[in-house]
Design goal:
131 residues; 5 helices; globular
Length: 131
């Protein structure tokens, strides 16, 4: 039996690889429902200082095809991550091993929500910035 009802993940998912698959498998194993938020191109550029290789539409299409059981959508146009989480109202915010947020800010906004981190899968090989 799954531990949670709704699990929420977010990321760029550019150059989709085995590390992403491992991360999404971990998230799927936690809950009955999974929501995958794809970062918009402008958000990727703001956070990473560069545009993604694949457009937000290409990344959205890829994840929708790979995970038809999931709710896959783009993040908000304004890039407001807290509002995106609020829209989905998950039981768990599942972060990648290399994702960083101000956890206190999220715990204050969502006191009942758990924040968990995934394990890395061969990060020396499967990290998008290495491709």
């Amino acid at each position: 039996m799954k531990s949670f009802k709704k699990v929420f993940v977010a990321g760029t998912f550019d150059k989709f690889h085995a590390g992403h698959q491992f991360f999404l498998k971990q998230a799927s194993d936690l809950g009955e429902e999974i929501t995958i938020i794809i970062a918009r191109d402008a958000t990727v550029e703001r956070i990473k200082g560069r545009r993604p290789i694949h457009t937000q539409e290409e990344r959205l299409f890829k994840l929708t095809q790979e995970y038809p059981q999931a709710h896959v959508r783009l993040g908000r146009e304004d890039g407001n991550f807290i509002e995106t989480v609020k829209e989905e109202s998950p039981d768990v915010l599942f972060l990648g091993y290399d994702q960083h947020i101000d956890e206190s800010q999220f715990q204050e906004a969502f006191p009942q929500m758990k924040i968990l981190k995934g394990e890395a899968y061969k990060p020396e090989i499967f990290k998008s910035s290495k491709f």
